[in-house]
């Protein structure tokens, strides 16, 4: 399935899905995923609704553990360690693989406390003021909020809230940042700011971004995975990874007919 | 066509219009009756209490004599007993109720079992007060006599039963508040590597705090006014005793014990006591309502 | 995969669970405490239900439902008069509170969305928090003092005030669950307001309203404090010739009176009556559970 395997393997894979099947109860939602996520690159997941791209994203930091009926078969390795081994602590995983959500979800606490929350619970002993400034600068938010750090994180604009959530994530100095449609709830200007931020962030972080917006994938991603849905014999919708390649290949010269149709806007 | 439909409109029987108005007014009056009853209760109790208010003034609240023979009345002991029994009950039921609400709002248990437990805890609230009293008299007090210096009815069993009775109020409202915390906030905390309990204690509980406080206040209101079980267990002594193993009294049990046989100024004194209890519980309940409705607005 | 390079900076062991980690340990302890509290909350219920079952069933025979309470130390007898008294007074309570409560709820959900409705709702909630002993005192002042006698009417009046907030709240919730489209459909075919409410909205909400009425009845049947000095108690049957204007027995007050006497036969009747009251509560709770789980919409 990975047609440009050489290109992807030139960088190291941080995360690697090997034959992953995802179930909700008895329902097989996503089947047979093999996928390598290269280091310090932006990988976009695109595809029609219901293809399971967000579900897969949440497998990388075991956030799906919160759903009782969720089950995963196969392996997702992180630097070679299977994240779904019995003895892996999901709390440790999430500390290294951070997440930014579709709807900005700051804690109902001050901006300052939003940033320090993760550091505090992880036993950070350094200078909190410095951490807050660094993280907010890292999320290109410092200039806008430096005078109102004591204000509630819910009181700033939606775009600022989302960057606060990114700042909160990078305050933990994670290795990977997962972004689940981070701009879905934002206006175009805020979207642009977050996209610029993503460009800066990939210097230090490996980023996976789920997006419905194909222009966004084309703008920010180095690699793109196209997920598609097929209808099984029992009439159930099942997601699979149709094609995964360099973004320019996916958008200009895809191997699969379905990919071509999707990126040219003919379905989905 | 137009003329027909116009004619039809005119033909609406006047009776229907009257019915509409009558119905609206019936509904309106019924709704206002609720507020009316509340005001009526306070006014009536206040008027009946006037003779005693005139006789004893505010000193009524600070004296612990209750002597129908010499017509000297004061409710210091019942006030003390009411507050102490309610506070002890809260002290026990707040942590337990919070624990219950956390267990029943997290994903510890399968949904089916969770639902049964929620039902059982709600059932605790439905059991009549007098049944708790009966059980306390025949089971709890004999049991406590085995393991404590307790001799008979006293503060301790009354407060213990109260804590059981108000537990469902706390746990039900706290659980609602916990469940209503935005799922995004929980995911954010978990996504940052918080453990389950870090998420609960640092994020979920603070976000749900106003609902929880409202629930605790409603429970307090219930404890302050609870009558039958307390009357049957507290011993109804007007001596001010600090020991939990000694009999005490509450305003509500004073009323329950004496009202039927009272006459003259004693009735008015009891009305005065009822007024004090009504005001205390009304204030607590109103504050609780305000806190809870504030929560619903968010 | 250049795994050699990765192993230099990443230790897979750091992802492993560590039961000695204070954070994990703390979570385990807290979960243990919460679980213990859960058990502690359920234990009293189970003990109380068990006692009621044992003591209650052993004291119940067909005769307790039809005979009068026995004097001390005399075997036999029952609480027929108290059962009948409870039925009479709860019925009076329901006759007053059900129409007023439903009309008030209709006002809240159909006629008013404004500030007045919020105040009425507030008053309803506050009224439901008024201790039943205060309601008893109030009914004593309003009815007993006015008519100079304890009566089933005074008891029923007191119970109606207890029932009102429950009926209003459940009815309003039930009415709110009826979709707006149903109302529009009715108005759209030319129905008047009262026709829409009475013949279209109400029928759709009836199961839930009945549930609320049942809950209110169960609550009223178990309440003692409101009856203590409104209906008082008597050893005799309710007196229809005197138009019920006499002290009237009730199950709840019987439990209280017989629980604090030293006579075994009366105590046994108290347990039996308590058993009946709790059975009523249990049944209504289960019925309301079933009724509300099958929503019409």
TrEMBL record, chain A:
Key words of the record: ATP-binding, Nucleotide-binding, Transport
BP GO terms, sorted: phosphate ion transmembrane transport
All residue ranges annotated as the ABC transporter domain in the record: 15-254
Pfam families in the record: ABC_tran
UniProt keyword Transport present: yes
PANTHER family: ABC TRANSPORTER I FAMILY MEMBER 17
Listed NCBIfam families: 3a0107s01c2 (TIGR00972)
Protein name: Phosphate ABC transporter ATP-binding protein
Species of origin: Gomphosphaeria aponina SAG 52.96 = DSM 107014
Gene: pstB
UniProtKB/TrEMBL annotation, chain C:
GO molecular function, one term: phosphate transmembrane transporter activity
Domain of life: Bacteria
Residue ranges crossing the lipid bilayer per the database entry: 25-54, 82-108, 120-144, 150-168, 189-210, 269-291
UniProtKB keywords: Cell membrane, Membrane, Phosphate transport, Transmembrane, Transmembrane helix, Transport
GO cellular component annotations of the record: plasma membrane
GO biological process: phosphate ion transmembrane transport
Localisation per UniProt entry: Cell membrane
Cited InterPro entries: MetI-like, MetI-like_sf, Phosphate_PstA, Phosphate_transprt_permease
Record domain ABC transmembrane type-1: where: 83-288
Membrane topology type: Multi-pass membrane protein
Pfam families assigned to the protein according to its UniProt record, in alphabetical order: BPD_transp_1
SUPFAM superfamilies xref list: MetI-like
Family recorded in the similarity comment: Belongs to the binding-protein-dependent transport system permease family. CysTW subfamily.
Protein name per Swiss-Prot or TrEMBL: Phosphate transport system permease protein PstA
Gene that this sequence comes from: pstA
